[in-house]
Amino acid sequence: MLIQTRTITVKAGYADQVVQRFSRPDHPMAAIPGFIDLSVMVKKARKNEEQEEVVVLVRWESEEAWKTWEKSPAHIEGHRNARHQEKPDFILSTVVSMYEVKAVTLPRVQAQS
Asked: Which CATH architecture has domain 2-100?
């Protein structure tokens, strides 16, 4: 399994805009064979923080499945369109990381009495 994370730091008050962008039910990534799921998380903020952090976590069955997405017309077109748009000023930084899953712990099945 391969996991990609995208950590996006935004100005306070803008996390919901990032969440909306990645939470579309018709996201073209979902049509790619080997796509498992996409989770969008917002870091719990402390009072008076000037930034918010959104983490997008995408799970793929394999690196090959992820590469299929990277080469897909939908992905390429999305980046092509983004090149012609100015990055929103509320986005302060974005860090992308890839992880190969080495171990998974599953819940124990509880016997019912």
From this structure: 2-Layer Sandwich (3.30)
